[in-house]
Amino acid sequence: MRINIIWFRQDLRLKDNPALNYAARSDANVLPIYILDDENAKSWKMGSAGRWWLHRSLESLDEALDGNLKLFSGKANEILKLLTESINIDGVYWNRCYEPWRIDRDKQIKLELQEMGIEAKSFNASLLFEPPKIKKSDGTPYKVFTPFYRKGCLGEESLPRKPEKSSKIIYSKEDLTLDCKLDDLKLLPKIQWYSTFEDEWEPGEKGAYDRLDKFIENGICNYKVGRNRPDQEFVSRLSPHIHFGEISPHQIWHQINKINETEINGKSIDHFLSELGWREFSHNLLFYWKELPEKNLQEKFDQFTWSSDEIKLEAWQKGETGYPIVDAGMRELWKTGYMHNRTRMITASFLVKNLMIHWHHGERWFWDTLLDADLANNSASWQWVAGCGADAAPYFRIFNPIIQGEKFDPNGEYVKKYVPELSNIPNKFIHKPWEASPEILSDSGVELGKNYPHPVVDLKQSRDHALSEFKKTLRVKMIERKIFILRHVRLSLIAQRRYWLAGTK
1-124 sits in which CATH class? Predict the structure, then answer.
């Protein structure tokens, strides 16, 4: 009897799973496995919040597989080698991931399996448009979102494929000695700060579908405007489910497109689908610029002077900056493992432009605390806010947390939810409590410096300082370029002179 391995990775679902369907073809026996490969991931191994989600998602997947999911921990190439040596395996199949370390590892695994006479195939289950297929007319990759999405994805490529139907699975009953129990993976952090996650989330394929249905019913109708309101529930909150592959972007794309645009604002549908496009764009950037998580895409920012103020960094991490909308966002992150996209931009801008702290620190904090922490999205988004990435916001675009709060949380409901010490302060002062009189603060139960902090920086001064440092960076870069050109011209003239002298001899 043929035995095929389906190697689950970031595709923890049964529906629309091309690798699973291929493994189950022709009534082959299927051996479902998951490998926690922290060794190959190295510094980019999954963060604490993501590991909690993975634990719950693997529980859900194993239940859907009737208890047949086999778990392993270690280097994936070594685990697969041991499995193929102990069991007569015909093929190993998986859906592609796009982190640089996974690409390099998977290429080597595929080569080793094929040399052993074992069929090894990978499939696209995670992206609507894979990077190698989306290039400009000159063959180079896009670095600006709008032409990437409108022309590269929607203009030159056929629409995303329809979701595949599920196949009947016949499970292999081979006895294994290498696998382990879920608890042996030790995914749950020792500090149970994630306990509040349980009330917010249902990891797994069913939870993903429920979340999509809820969004279609209540959120998509006003998504274009409502997506910027952290005080309201118009966003999908699908990102953790998408990251772990509990639902595919193809399923979401086609489900959303089934909605009657006469009943729902068509612009809201287009805006939501373009958010899927931004995810595609981020993966495209990471595919072509593998150092995106670590190096500025725009090299001029390599000369930028950053602050190393650990006290201010900790205040930002804890949501104790004295700016309510920033603090609400950071506390939402800690409490729920999620942050509204508008406040992600506000908190990120505050860190890199008001506190002048390197985006790497923010990237790493989000990596550990976000349930949807994704290497491509996280890296591209932080570089976008910092102004050093592709299609980045101009550096001088600095989000003012007071204006942002008053515009997108006008009644302070979001702030009051996550910064309860300000819940009794009048709406007029909810985003700037330091402007309230001592009497108002006292009546509201707010004592600045005691139960709520004073602002850690002055907005105007910090903005001016950031812009000054940016201008200095540009000047340095301009001088370096002039020196380079002058040196090039000088060398060229020397070469010409030598050529002329040689011709006169």
Answer: alpha beta
Give the position of tokens 């395996």: 89
Provide CATH 3.40.50.620 ranges for the chain.
Answer: 1-124
Please return the burial class of 410, using the count of CB atoms within 10 Å of its CB with bins 0-12, 13-18 and 19+: middle
| CATH architecture group of domain 127-163+204-288 | Alpha Horseshoe (1.25)
Q: What is the mean pLDDT of residues 326-330?
A: 98
CATH architecture of 290-505: Orthogonal Bundle (1.10)
Sorting pLDDT into bands at 50, 70 and 90, what band is 246? very high
User: Quick check: pTM over 0.90?
Assistant: yes
Residue 3: strand pairing partners: 29
Q: What is the DSSP string of 307-320?
A: B--HHHHHHHHHT-
Vertex 288, ends 285 and 290: CA angle to 5°? Answer: 90
Dist CA 122 CA 141 (whole Å): 23
pLDDT band at 483; cut points 50, 70, 90: very low
Detail the DSSP E strand segments found in 103-225. Answer: 119-123, 170-171
Q: Among all residues, which ones are annotated catalytic?
A: 275, 278, 306, 341, 359, 382
Beta-carbon contacts of 278 under 8 Å, excluding residues fewer than 6 positions away, are 145, 149
Predicted confidence at residue 50, as pLDDT, reads 97
Residue 393 predicted with pLDDT over 80? no
Give bridge partners of residue 452 from the DSSP assignment.
448
How far apart (Å, rounded) are the C-alpha atoms in residues 478 and 491? 20
